[in-house]
Amino acid sequence: MKRIWSNLFAIGIIVIGLVLILSNIGAIDWNYSQSWHYLYPVFILLLGLKILIDFLRGEGGFWFGIFCILFGGLLILDRFEVLAFEFKDVFKLWPLLIIYFGFSLLRFGKKGKKRKSSVNIEWEAGSKKKKDKKKYKKNHNYAIGEHRFESEGWIVEPTQVKNAVGEYYIDFTKALIPNDEIPFHIKGWAGEVRIILPDNVEFRLEALVKAGEINVFGELSEGINRSTYYETPDYADATRKLDIYVNYKAGRIRVDRI
Q: What gap in Å lies between CA 250 and CA 71, rounded to an integer?
């Protein structure tokens, strides 16, 4: 962990130096309001390069490094008006999955590792940590697609959904929520998640994204390794409540309450 933080700090210093150089030569107009607009794409690109270097040394992940380099590079080209590519256009990179699948077929004679159907989720509130191991009535795996939970009266059950690339729209205001503690977990590679919660149901929410943005009740956090934790005041004593966990490599997560 210490090595990871030192690497991130080093990359951050490099990014700041590069931006200052671009400012000095007049390539960009440096000011506080615009700084992050240029900083985080360069940070994503350098993070990808670092991951690839680690891969060549026998560590790290090749494909996530390629994704970060491509994604960060396209965002940088957009900043300099070479082409138009916004953060939400991350879905346009889905053909990388086809390339990944093609290369995976070249791995002859290798057996894949079995994955457990349940996951350990670590919730953090203040200094207390609790690990919950849940069993899910609904456990879905998708490659690419759009999924909407918005029909009137849909029943909320313990659910875990995994997706490579896709969009989710989940409207709990139209759902029938049982008098129980219901986990609802979403994990993916790249995508967008929109969640609408009713104001009469207690919940706790943990949202994580490696590269992207999280917007919870209007509070926006964007960049690298973003995370947000929120728990309603009466959550601990409530009998009807939701445990919501969203984890994406790259994407946008938005949560509203009405």
A: 9
Residues 204-227: pLDDT tens digits? 999 998 877 899 998 888 777 889
At 175-194, the pLDDT tens digits run 999 999 999 999 887 778 99
- The residue written with tokens 């090595």 in the block is 3
Amino acid at 77: L
8-state DSSP, 26? T
Q: Look-up: residue for tokens 């390539």? A: 27
Q: What is the three-state SS of 192-257?
A: EEEEEECCCCEEEEEEEEEEEEEEECCEEEEEEEEEEEEECCCCCCCCCEEEEEEEEEEEEEEEEE
Q: Is 184 exposed, middle or buried (0-12, 13-18, 19+ CB in 10 A)?
A: buried
pTM: 0.52
